[in-house]
User: What shape does this take?
Amino acid sequence: MNDSADPVRGAQKRDLVILGGGLVGMTLALAAARQGITSHVVERADPAELTADGVDGRASAISSASWNLFANIGLAEALAPLGCPIDAIAVTDQMKPGRIDFQPKEGDSALGRMYANRDIRLALFAAAEQEPNITWHTRADVVSRQRGPHGVEVTLAGGQELAGSLLVGAEGRRSPTRDEEGIGLVAWDYHHTAIVTALAHEKPHDNVAWEIFYAAGPFALLPLLDLPDGRHRSALVWTVPAKDAKGVMAMTDAAFTAEVARRMEGMFGGIELIAQRLAYPLSYQNATRIVGDRLALVGDAAHGMHPIAGQGLNLGLRDVGALVEVLADGMRLGLEPGDAQVLKRYENWRALDTFTTMSVMDGIVRLFGVPGQTASAVRRIGMAAVQRMPRLKTFFMNEARGLSGKLPSLLQG
Assistant: This one.
């Protein structure tokens, strides 16, 4: 990455100033760079710490459309050997009869790929380091943001000034850029916490992702590649009531593993905890708007959802594809990246997809959270009906792949 840029009133000038260099922010910078769009990326953390072993044990389900994005920006060679294909998804209410099995037809692509977040970060950072259109500012705190008719300027704690045409908020759910703009949130607390870790297990997972719904919350087992020593491995996302989270986190490894095994009912044989446990409070939040004067929001700064079905990161990557496309189209017509027409097109494009995806995910969480044997029986009858309807299953699989609706060109094969 190149630290030189043309000065504008003493500031370093680029097309975009992206605040937040996480998975979405850095993907945006790299995708934009491939279109000739330059950017500053400002990240508070140290990349070496973000990619250190054991710091982030989370894994993400990358949809087919999101994989197309990574491939189209040159990450296929680095990422292809590291992802575990999701060949099927099993959805069940408390492991009782009446489950749904989503499995592509022979010859169709997998439903997605599972990646350790660390592996995606390493690939993104390595590519960004070689990209002259990206200037990366790490361990950097923003002390002021200014937007005006002629551009945007950001001042860092050390006094360095960065200039651009468009400011992008990619700092995550607690985006100070969004809050400073006064953008409101439609938000509620699920009063649940996701406990995230990884398991080694005796029996193979056969590339099947399991979503097991219990009254207390979903219990997801997501396939990962086998360990170098040949042991089978899965990511675990166990949702527990917020009031129980501290107790679950305080369990000994043996007690925690025993509770997990009880919910798995022995389907993977003996299990072993192989990563630290991390806890994340769960909530719904959707920004009332995602653009302002020379401002755009992407990823969790714009929308945050329950991790059920693993669609949060994929939704953010669709933001990336749409924003880069409208920016590139506008710049070919002679418009600035911060032009209001360009940003309005981005907001309109993303509105329906975001609302639909988040509403469906929230509805599923609420539907499967209704307690009682009657509610469970009704759910299982409904799932058994869906199991017998191939067209409806195909629709759901296309949604999981991220292939429905109007896709940005970067997310197409």
